[in-house]
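for the writeup, i need someone to sanity check this before i put it in the appendix. the sequnce is what the collaborator sent (i think, or maybe the updated version? ugh). structure was predicted straight from it, no edits. if anything looks off just tell me and ill rerun, i have time this weekend
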Amino acid sequence: MKVIKTEIEGVTIIEPRLFNDERGYFFESFSQRDFENQVRNIRFVQDNESKSSYGVLRGLHFQKPPFTQSKLVRVIKGAVLDVAVDIRKGSPTFGQHVAVELTEENHLQLFVPRGFAHGFSVLSEEVIFQYKCDNFYAPQSEGAIAWNDPDLHIDWRIPADKVILSEKDKHHPLLKDAEWLFDYTENLY
């Protein structure tokens, strides 16, 4: 696997090594050994999958301690714009984001560490999205910030009038108004 660093430390793009022939392709979608050698020590405990249609926007979500999560995300079918926002107070990149197009053709993955809000918009007619988490889902620990916060300057690459949100995702606070954020000086791992 090839590890591509982004402009925000810790947020990493992973490009798997693809083996193509007349039968199709093969690649390792995850190797514990390679991930620990090239990215960081981690123990994933839960795999999730969602299916969505064009215009669906999920995010920007995170989990508060003690259920904070890192995620390793990828697309099985279709295409998304995947976004990680630094919400660690005191971080030199606080409020900045990384946005990467993940598709079934490019096989890219994005590692989103603890201390970041995460979301994605569906760019294709349909998408199947998978992700690994290093902590279990805990509904009592859910947190989020507004997907359309003007201070974040995120171009979700779909017109605002085409965005489809869950009822919950329609009501998140702006980053500057969030009651709870991570502290950059705390070790989240």
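The chain has a mean pLDDT of 95. The chain has one domain: 2-178.
thx in advance!!
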